[in-house]
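Translate sequence into structure tokens.
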Amino acid sequence: MDDTLSPEACRSRYTERLTAERLEIIADGRGTDADRKPVTLDQQAVGRLSRMDALQGQAMAKAMQGRRDGRVKAIDAALDRLAGEDFGWCDDCGAFIGVKRLDLDPTVQRCVSCAR
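Result follows.
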């Protein structure tokens, strides 16, 4: 396989994939809205250990949402680069990143050499 792609080939190869991943991540985040809501302090209904478990669950759900938000931002940036024909070129050295690396993660912005 050729290790370079034309801008048209990049758009057709990665736009649909990135858009589908973005929609899936957003849907996953909506499914955990209740987990991120504030934990109420009600000593009668919830014991101290149960409240600690609820707070830990809330913290984990918030951290996971933060990772989701970061991935959506990376996908949005990759989609912007696809639209502007900057997709696939290393931000540091300007070389083509490579199809194999882009296939692993189309949001990468650096070639293997510069990523080290």
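Note: DSSP finds four helices and no strands in the chain.
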